[in-house]
Amino acid sequence: MVRYKAIIAYDGTNFSGFQSQINGRTVQDEIEKTLSKIANQTIKINGSGRTDAGVHALGQVIDFAWPFEQSLEKLRFALDTQTPGDIAVKQVELVPDSFHSRYLAKEKTYEFRVDIGKPRSPFRRFYTSYYPYELDLEKIKRALPDFLGTHDFTSFCSGKSAVKNKTRTIYEADLVISESGDELLFTFRGDGFLYNMIRIIVGTLLKIGNGNIRHDAIPQIIAARDRDAAGPTAHPEGLYLKEVKYE
Amino acid sequence: MVRYKAIIAYDGTNFSGFQSQINGRTVQDEIEKTLSKIANQTIKINGSGRTDAGVHALGQVIDFAWPFEQSLEKLRFALDTQTPGDIAVKQVELVPDSFHSRYLAKEKTYEFRVDIGKPRSPFRRFYTSYYPYELDLEKIKRALPDFLGTHDFTSFCSGKSAVKNKTRTIYEADLVISESGDELLFTFRGDGFLYNMIRIIVGTLLKIGNGNIRHDAIPQIIAARDRDAAGPTAHPEGLYLKEVKYE
């Protein structure tokens, strides 16, 4: 047996999320079904982490044991073309047996896209979150650096999370406005993110831009360690897992 | 009664085309249904032209008679928000009673997008045509100017068309490659286009890029006045009606 790592992209619109579950179509199930068919035996995969229903990936990482060593491009092509059209397989590489997509992940980058155009673009309705209200982008830009560094992010974590240690380090928190002026692109890079963390951060930043939360309130919201202190959870359609890095 | 003109965009993926037909969901039916509900009486629309199933619009133009003059932005907002999410209403304006979207159109611009990335992007599968084969873009660029000017475009018209006069004038035929290098954007502007004309032009240009048709063959193909002389009809997903101009 050898172990392969693969970088995959998927359109999350028609998935109930990445991870296998009793009901619903999942990315993991589709990939395991295809790999098992190619290998003619049951293949199970690890992923770098879950993504929720509607959330997309540009660079999700998976790994799996494989019965024999083979051409990387042949395996990538077979997996890419035999999985449904909403999954793409960008790269396959051989990794040591000890590799694990989730346990060994050192850094993750997420993007969050917000459509602020009027009217809402019909082409981006599944690929951005729509925000039709007034936004002062300068206020959002002033608030972003307050997320940088190591903090207990309990206030920015879904109450449904069972994780105990809620301390995470954010290296990058950035906002770029599209040339056309009708789309916001947030980028967050850190050593890991809690359940719904990016979506709650963006939901809070949009409230800051709209004037409902003060632009200098982030330090107090973090210090509160209380989910109710932060803003709402932004919609999943805007969220993309962009990249996962390993040592 | 007054007459309004509206500029609309739509994602053609889940439509059987623009024009009403006996079976299938159409853009015209959805807009007429919404307008009739708002006006509380039957409203019928004209469109600048049909688009086929799967074809998109960034700037389709429609017009309709309306029982009373009212706020343009209120009407635009009502129509935009009450039509389904795959239709957007960008602009509404008052026009003379004599206005007609189809009869008075002077110039149309279409875009055609081709995904040439490896692998195919899952996010663009409904919004580009995919071409996975080798392409010499210089050959395509050399062929493009041969479409300019006034020609009988019978060779680039579907055999199903009932139109007799197949002479059209093309003012612009252009190709731009995306920054990422994985998408082609064709633009065609002319006084009008025949049924499937852009799709047959693009299908022929891709064959030229792939070396199956000579880059200098366009004049002969036009002169043949024979649909079989041109290349195949490219897929509808890459086609966008971008703009319609009036005097």
Automatic annotation (TrEMBL), chains A, B:
Its EC number is 5.4.99.12. Keywords: Isomerase, tRNA processing. GO terms for biological process: tRNA pseudouridine synthesis. InterPro entries: PsdUridine_synth_cat_dom_sf, PsdUridine_synth_TruA, PsdUridine_synth_TruA_a/b_dom, PsdUridine_synth_TruA_C, TruA/RsuA/RluB/E/F_N. Gene3D superfamilies: Pseudouridine synthase I, catalytic domain, C-terminal subdomain (3.30.70.660), Pseudouridine synthase I, catalytic domain, N-terminal subdomain (3.30.70.580). Residues 6-103, 146-247 form the Pseudouridine synthase I TruA alpha/beta domain. The active site is at D52 (nucleophile). It is an enzyme of class 5 (isomerase). It comes from the Bacteria. Belongs to the tRNA pseudouridine synthase TruA family. Homodimer. PANTHER family: PSEUDOURIDYLATE SYNTHASE (PTHR11142), TRNA PSEUDOURIDINE SYNTHASE-LIKE 1 (PTHR11142:SF0). This is tRNA pseudouridine synthase A.
